[in-house]
Amino acid sequence: MSWREVIISERCKLDYSMNYMVVRGEETKRILLDEIALLIIENNTVSMTGCLLSALVEKKIKVVLCDDKRSPQAELVSYYGAHNDSYKIKQQICWGEDLRKMIWTSIIREKISNQSKLLLKYNNSEQANMLKKYVDDLVPGDITNREGHAAKVYFNALFGMSFTRSDEENIINVVLNYGYALLLSAFNREIVANGYLTQLGLGHDNQFNHFNLSCDLMEPFRIIIDDIAKSNNFTSFGTDEKHEIVKVLNKGFIVRGNEQTLLNAIKLYTKSVFDAINECNIDLIKFVEI
């Protein structure tokens, strides 16, 4: 089972040899591809061979490419994730509106519940109780936008009344955006690996968003990044701070009574959502204890 997150920060050449990624920099290192779950290329002077790129795709290793500020900019996504992609995509296109609403409402209920738990952790009991009320008020498809109302209460309680997600220069938003991008990549990988399209979502339906379904499924997991941003109180966000965020992907979380790394928890959860959709049974969703 793949488990390593590999970050390439310095200028080097990456190539392939006998199921290993070979890193040729000041020193030459070899990393077994079967161990790699995520590869982040932080330095945009890194060169990679086509042979290695093909092997990374074949092994379903998520590759994230960063810009000159070392922020996630793009990722490598395979055209094909499963042997029966065509069948599953036909299924996905035929998911009915009522079914999509049922699954989406369950996901949003879990998201708001997790937000309430995090507020309690930081002694915001009044706002946490407000979010519990929003959970009780949820209706199919969240047509009353309890998610949006909860988000305003949640972020203001967690980061202050002056905080807004639209302020891109705010250090908190820089941290959140980086962490959310890593989560999004992990979900993209699992959705494609299961044979589905990331573009066709349950609740998200933006024609300009290539990852509507990924944005749907990751919603309950966002508070993991929120917690890191709150607890670390970052004053800057450089290489060391980014690597601190990446570490959470190997942190242990409980899924149905068993401890899993976050990457494996995402894998189990994503597969369970598709099982729940195909079986019309929301009880099959394996939410993560956060």
Average of per-residue pLDDT values: 94
Strand order of the largest sheet: 1-5-7-8
Q: What is the radius of gyration computed over CA atoms, rounded to a whole number of angstroms? A: 20 Å
Classify the oligomer.
single chain
Low-confidence stretches: none
Task: Considering the chains and any ligands shown, give keywords for the structure.
Ribosomal Protein L15, Chain: K, domain 2, 290 residues, 2 domains, Four Helix Bundle (Hemerythrin (Met), subunit A), four-stranded mixed β-sheet, alpha/beta
Protein architecture, described:
- This protein is of the alpha/beta class and 290 residues long.
- It folds into two domains: 73 residues, Ribosomal Protein L15, Chain: K, domain 2; 205 residues, CRISPR-associated endonuclease Cas1, C-terminal domain (Four Helix Bundle (Hemerythrin (Met), subunit A)).
- Helix 4 packs antiparallel against helix 5 and helix 6 crosses helix 7.
- The mean pLDDT is 94.
Tell me the layout of helices and strands.
Blueprint: E1 4-8, E2 13-17, E3 20-24, E4 28-32, E5 36-41, E6 47-48, H1 50-58, E7 62-66, E8 72-76, H2 85-93, H3 97-121, H4 125-136, H5 146-159, H6 171-193, H7 212-218, H8 222-232, H9 239-246, E9 252-255, E10 258-261, H10 262-279, E11 288-289
